[in-house]
Automatic annotation (TrEMBL):
Any coiled-coil regions, as ranges: none
InterPro entries in the cross-refs: Creatin/AminoP/Spt16_N, Creatinase/aminopeptidase-like, Creatinase_N, Pept_M24, Peptidase_M24B
Superkingdom per UniProt: Bacteria
Protein name from the UniProt record: Xaa-Pro dipeptidase
PANTHER family attached to this UniProt entry: AMINOPEPTIDASE (PTHR46112), XAA-PRO AMINOPEPTIDASE P-RELATED (PTHR46112:SF2)
Domain Creatinase N-terminal: 13-151
Record domain Peptidase M24: where: 160-366
Pfam family, one: Peptidase_M24
Length: 383
């Protein structure tokens, strides 16, 4: 099966990783984040819901410890040559298998970095792992080492991000004719996801968000569908996905004549996102982006209606979330660099008046001004 990137791309990623490991004096890394394994090797699976880890030594050699169900998955989708299977059984403790494997790899007494902050690491696994390694080696929390390397995208990655953005636009195009009085949320959702899949894209790392009426004020997916009324509001947050790379968008669409409050909130969203476009460039930080958002919202008396974050980095991600670690929130000193794919969202939820307004899409940063990846304008959408 051809991988999504050529050998030179994976080799360059390994070189960046081992260089960072050398800086931090790490003899090995235990990768538990599926996106880290995917980025480094192409390995593509949802098997991280069980115990598995990719051991990467300072010299670039790799060994995957996983279950039998993922043996062929790894061989088919990755460039990993050495794959070791731990056996499913009653009261199995695969961290014992891991310790034995690390011993065979001459890592007794080594300094090993571990990805703890990931959906592939449960609390139970962390406790078992620490118990096995306490007297075996020196460990450190290296949760963000690969995550930080993934922040800037290569030209090959950018091509996938751009295709993902086009699929996100296609999803909105498919939804708009169905958004009207009497429209069915189920049909809208099916059309959006269908546009991504039929366009050669993938499932997203989390569900598309859809909610109308009072549920337009929710920021998460929930079960249940509704028919749109003559005067209504519909909040959508979705992503185009290609080779697991995400490009997200967000809109609150008004059915019928927008209320005065809808127009006020839209103006705040629009002004804030345009101001952020002036900040979303090298020399600024993720915290500066949030501060711009907060200042504009707060000046308009919307402090209690806004959120405490206004976006995040995007990339190749796996369930249950397409959000990267690096977010736009107060105090985040992460510098903005060229070739980052960043989702900027404005979310205002006025619970007192049951009025929602959101606006957002994905940008690619450059050496100067950011480039919006959506072909759709930031206009207020009315149906």
């Amino acid at each position: 099966m051809p991988q999504h990137f050529d050998r030179s791309e994976y080799a360059a990623r390994m070189e960046r990783l081992t260089a960072r490991m050398a800086e931090q004096k790490l003899d090995a890394m235990l990768l538990f984040a599926q996106e880290s394994m995917y980025w480094l090797t192409g390995y593509d699976t949802f098997g991280y819901c069980f115990f598995q880890t990719l051991i990467v030594k300072a010299d670039g050699t790799m060994t995957l410890l996983t279950r039998s169900a993922d043996l062929r998955q790894a061989k088919r989708t990755s460039n990993i040559d050495n794959i070791v299977i731990w056996v499913d059984r009653m009261k199995a403790d695969p961290t014992v298998d891991l310790r034995n494997l690390l011993s065979e790899m001459d890592l007794l007494g080594a300094r090993i970095g571990i990805e703890y902050d990931t959906h592939g690491m449960t609390g139970r696994i962390a406790r078992l792992l620490d118990n096995q390694l306490t007297n075996f080696c020196e460990t450190s929390d290296a949760s963000y080492l690969v995550s930080e390397l993934r922040l800037t995208k290569s030209p090959a990655e950018i091509a996938h991000v751009e295709r993902a953005a086009a699929l996100a636009d296609d999803a909105l195009d498919a939804a708009l004719p169905l958004i009207r009085a009497g429209g069915d949320e189920a049909a809208i959702l099916a059309a959006m996801q269908g546009a991504v899949l039929s366009g050669g894209g993938d499932y997203p790392a989390n569900e598309f968000i859809i909610g109308s009426g009072p549920d337009a004020l929710l920021c998460r997916y929930k079960a249940g569908r509704r028919t749109l009324a003559d005067k209504d509001q519909l909040t959508l947050e979705w992503a185009g996905v290609k080779a697991h790379y995400h490009a997200a968008m967000m809109r609150t669409i008004v059915i019928g004549e927008p209320s005065t409050r809808h127009r006020e909130l839209y103006a705040a969203c629009h002004d804030a996102i345009k101001a952020i476009e002036e900040v979303l460039r090298p020399g600024q930080t993720f915290g500066d982006v949030f501060d711009t958002h907060a200042r504009i919202m707060d000046e308009r008396g919307l402090a209690r209606h806004r959120l405490n974050a206004c976006g995040y980095s995007l990339g190749a991600r796996f369930s249950p979330s397409w959000m990267e670690h690096q977010m736009f929130h107060t105090g985040n000193a992460q510098p903005i660099l060229p070739d980052m794919s960043l989702f900027v969202h404005m979310i205002i939820m006025d619970s007192e008046r049951e009025t929602a307004m959101t606006l957002g899409h994905t940008y690619l940063t450059t050496a100067e001004a950011p480039r919006a990846l959506s072909r759709h304008p930031l206009a207020l959408v009315q149906r």
